[in-house]
């Protein structure tokens, strides 16, 4: 069946509508849905051409939304579908197999958030005081399932400037009837002695086992290490990315700022970065849909996923 | 079968020592005779060991079995002592045991055949049970080669048991069989490292070789000399030189009649490897190279003609220095950077690296390792080479590396280790004491303005000189390992080993 070919504009529009329609969906899943649509309508003659088109599409999506998750999700999608791409001699059959695998992949990762929540909520004990940073839908899901399990706990959320995402998180938690307090970013050191554990989400998990997350996470991790509080990270497996930063400045520029800033502004040194890098030595455990991992096990999983 | 070689014993030994002195290779029959002798002696030793613990249990059961070999054994014992070359001197503890039960068996009455059989079976069961949990007779700190009953027990490598006389004797016998001279240790060894070898550079192994020696190929002799004098140094250079020498060996090799290339060539390589090991202990990369070659050789099908087989082997061989290469390549890509080369005595290998970098036009600074904390504040990244990467993530490298990694960590400077995957090895080590290499202690002597300090260090009884070659860096100090497969964290070494094993 012949579908009209997707142009860049339509791609981005499709992506944005996905995100708008369902604010709960992770941006990577939306990106992958877009890619799947593109795949169905693609008209290239060879597999190489198909791959090239897909890589270009991923790049265009990254321009629309510069988060790490879109990039990693896209790359994983590409890998996942091309693993059996050479088996069938006929291109259309190949594409059919690819589309099927793509749908399978999509189904798997849509369930990943609930898998993570199931693993993590057992670590929250009754009467616990939890500290979290900015707004993360995975953390929200975890706290939701813990509350559903009839556990009593209180949450402290950092305000997380410059976009005050923490306040949105606080509203959502209040709707779930969880006692929540918003604290200033600067008050993390002050509040650390009161809390029992720290849970944060991640925008990307890097090869060394460290994470890339909203700016302020690194500070939080350093403080929790100084106070010997466990620092947990919850992330789905499609956020694993093949980067290896050694320090803050090794994180590529295209992730550090919002997509609009990258296009509009000339001198990026004037801008405030939106994310920072937390090294693996400060992280206690990572909860993913592949299981509960230590930071050094992340590399093993990455090798299995990518090689 | 065990007794057949006995009556010719002394006569055989003369023949063999004679042929050894002439430098000729042992003929096949002589080798077989030696092998039978060894087997018999080993059985005797085992019997004596078993007599030790089982003597207290039942005196009757060993009796019936022992009378036949007993008189021969008693004959062997006194003859064994004056012939130290070939006879395995039994573990000294069992020698007194040996003499005491000698009179007792003669007193006991003979038994019927069925009873003898039952007792023998019972004795075997007890022996098997005694061997399993590691019986007292099998040595306190060393592991005497256990029978095939315990394949799980791993032996300690011989080169870290130098202070155990039994192991040294075993090594000496093995070398004698392969007709390689044994290198003796030199100088006073620091007590914490007395379990390692310490050789002097002034006494190379080749001086002890008789001329002409047809056992060892001349290119291997040359290689051994290059290793022991330090002319070829550095793990990559050593492996490459080893492979070149093996190529020459394969080219000159001819299969003797009635022998298969795949088996005979591997056996020929064994004495070469022992010789090279004596000249300078093998490194992990060399070990991996040798394993690879042996595998290739044994995989050659038996129908393969000799010429074909040789060309096949040569082609499969054909396919620090590393850090230098990385820096030179980066410089060619017009990256602007400055290199600080840290060097240390006594080898001062940094000078060569410095020379090569300066020749390319890279701006360099040269410091000794004692100035490390002075220059680290201006360093952005530390690049280290590695000799081997162990399975628990520890990095084995030139001594001083772990010091640099430690100081760099306190200054929060990222430490990158560059290592090819062929240097990954399955060993596990957590400290630098267990397995290391002691270099010639005389290297530490310095001559300045005509005066050599420490010239007479051997005369001072309480003074020991320690010249270590390797040290081990924990994975917490290393941020990244760069390999030919990509960038991996230090703890992922076992994953790479697993993936590589699957490929092979």
Model description:
The complex is a heterodimer of chains A (307) and B (504). Chain A is an alpha/beta fold and 307 residues long. In chain A, 49% of the residues lie in helices and 13% in strands. Chain A is built from 13 helices and ten strands. In chain A, helix 2 crosses helix 4, helix 3 (47-64) packs antiparallel against helix 4 (68-82) and helix 4 packs across helix 5 (91-110). The two termini of chain A are 34 Å apart. In chain B, strand 10 (480-483) and strand 11 (486-488) form a beta hairpin. In chain B, helix 1 (9-21) crosses helix 2, helix 9 (218-229) packs parallel to helix 11 (261-279) and helix 14 runs parallel beside helix 15 (350-360). Chain B has 18 helices and eleven strands. Chain B has helices spanning 9-21, 28-57, 60-65, 69-80, 94-99, 103-107, 113-131, 165-177, 218-229, 235-252, 261-279, 284-298, 306-317, 322-332, 350-360, 372-375, 401-410, 493-503, and strands at residues 339-343, 364-368, 382-385, 388-389, 395-398, 415-418, 447-448, 451-452, 470-473, 480-483, 486-488. The relative contact order of chain B is 0.07. Chain A binds chain B through residues 207-209, 244, 246-247, 280-281, 296, 299-300, 303, 307, and chain B through 381, 414, 416, 476, 479-480, 487-489, 491-492, 495-496, 499. Chain A: InterPro entries: eIF2B_alpha/beta/delta, elF-2B_alpha_N, IF-2B-related, IF_2B-like_C, NagB/RpiA_transferase-like. Chain A: Belongs to the eIF-2B alpha/beta/delta subunits family. Chain A: It comes from Oncorhynchus kisutch. Chain A: Pfam families: IF-2B.
């Amino acid at each position: 069946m012949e579908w009209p070919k997707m142009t860049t504009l339509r791609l981005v529009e499709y992506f944005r509508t996905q995100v708008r329609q369902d604010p709960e969906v992770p941006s990577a899943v939306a990106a992958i849905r877009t890619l799947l649509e593109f795949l169905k309508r693609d008209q290239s003659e060879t597999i190489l051409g198909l791959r090239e088109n897909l890589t270009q599409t991923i790049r265009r999506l990254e321009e629309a939304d510069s988060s790490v998750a879109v990039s990693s999700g896209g790359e994983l999608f590409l890998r996942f579908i091309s693993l059996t791409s050479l088996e069938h001699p006929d291109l259309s059959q190949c594409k059919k197999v690819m589309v099927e695998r793509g749908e399978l992949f999509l189904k798997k990762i849509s369930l990943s958030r609930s898998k993570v929540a199931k693993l993590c909520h057992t670590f929250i004990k009754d009467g616990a005081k939890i500290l979290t940073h900015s707004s993360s839908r995975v953390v929200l899901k975890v706290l939701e399932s813990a509350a559903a399990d009839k556990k009593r706990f209180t949450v402290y959320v950092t305000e997380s400037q410059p976009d005050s995402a923490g306040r949105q998180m606080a509203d959502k938690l209040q709707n779930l009837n969880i006692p929540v307090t918003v604290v200033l970013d600067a008050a993390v050191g002050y509040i650390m002695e009161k809390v029992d554990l720290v849970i944060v989400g991640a925008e990307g998990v890097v090869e060394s086992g460290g994470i890339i997350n909203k700016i302020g996470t690194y500070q939080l991790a350093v403080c929790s290490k100084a106070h010997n509080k466990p620092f947990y990270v919850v992330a789905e497996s499609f956020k694993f990315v093949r980067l290896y930063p050694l320090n803050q400045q090794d994180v590529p520029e295209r992730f550090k700022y919002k997509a609009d800033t990258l296009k509009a502004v000339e001198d990026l040194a004037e801008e405030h970065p939106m994310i920072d890098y937390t090294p693996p030595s400060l992280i206690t455990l990572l909860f993913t849909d592949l299981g509960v991992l230590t930071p050094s096990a992340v590399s093993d999983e990455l090798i299995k996923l990518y090689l | 079968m065990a007794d057949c070689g006995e009556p010719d014993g002394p006569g055989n030994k003369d023949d063999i020592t004679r042929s050894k002195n002439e430098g000729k290779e042992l003929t096949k029959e002589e080798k077989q005779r030696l092998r039978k002798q060894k087997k018999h002696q080993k059985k005797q030793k085992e019997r004596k060991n078993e007599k030790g613990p089982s003597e207290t249990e039942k005196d009757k059961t060993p009796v019936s079995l022992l009378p036949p070999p007993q008189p021969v054994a008693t004959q062997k014992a006194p003859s064994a002592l004056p012939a130290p070359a070939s006879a395995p001197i039994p573990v000294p503890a069992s020698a007194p045991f040996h003499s005491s039960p000698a009179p007792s068996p003669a007193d006991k009455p003979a038994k019927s055949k069925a009873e003898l059989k039952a007792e023998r079976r019972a004795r075997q069961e007890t022996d098997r049970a005694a061997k399993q949990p590691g019986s007292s007779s099998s040595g306190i700190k060393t592991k005497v080669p256990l029978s095939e009953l315990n394949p799980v027990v791993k032996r300690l490598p011989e080169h870290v048991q130098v202070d155990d006389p039994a192991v040294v004797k075993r090594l000496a016998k093995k070398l004698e069989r392969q007709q390689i001279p044994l290198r003796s240790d030199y100088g006073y060894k620091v007590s914490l490292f007395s379990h390692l070898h310490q050789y002097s550079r002034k006494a190379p192994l080749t001086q002890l070789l008789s001329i002409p020696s047809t056992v060892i190929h001349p290119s291997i002799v040359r290689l051994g000399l290059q290793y022991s004098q330090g002319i070829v140094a550095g793990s990559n250079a050593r492996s490459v030189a080893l492979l070149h020498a093996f190529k020459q060996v394969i080219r000159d090799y001819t299969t003797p009649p009635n022998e298969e290339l795949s088996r005979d060539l591997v056996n020929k390589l064994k004495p070469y490897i022992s010789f090279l090991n004596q000249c300078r202990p093998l490194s992990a990369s060399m070990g991996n190279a040798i394993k690879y070659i042996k595998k290739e050789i044994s995989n050659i099908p038996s129908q393969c003609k000799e010429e074909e087989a040789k060309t096949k082997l040569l082609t499969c061989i054909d396919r620090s220095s590393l850090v230098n290469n990385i820096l030179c390549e980066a410089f060619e890509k017009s990256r602007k950077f400055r290199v600080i080369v840290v060097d240390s005595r006594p080898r001062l290998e940094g000078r060569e690296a410095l020379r090569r970098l300066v020749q390319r036009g890279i701006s360099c600074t040269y410091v000794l390792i004692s100035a490390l904390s002075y220059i680290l504040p201006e360093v952005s990244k530390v690049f280290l080479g590695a000799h081997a990467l162990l399975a628990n993530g520890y990095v084995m490298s030139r001594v001083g590396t772990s010091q640099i990694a430690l100081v760099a960590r306190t200054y929060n400077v990222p430490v990158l280790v560059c290592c090819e995957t062929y240097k990954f090895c399955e060993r596990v080590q957590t400290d630098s004491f267990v397995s290391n290499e002691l270099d010639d202690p005389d290297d530490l002597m310095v001559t300045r303005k005509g005066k050599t300090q420490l010239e007479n260090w051997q005369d001072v009884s309480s003074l020991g000189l320690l010249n270590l070659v390797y040290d081990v860096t924990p994975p917490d100090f290393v941020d990244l390992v760069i390999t030919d497969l990509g960038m991996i964290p230090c703890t992922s070494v076992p994953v790479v080993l697993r993936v590589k094993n699957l490929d092979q």
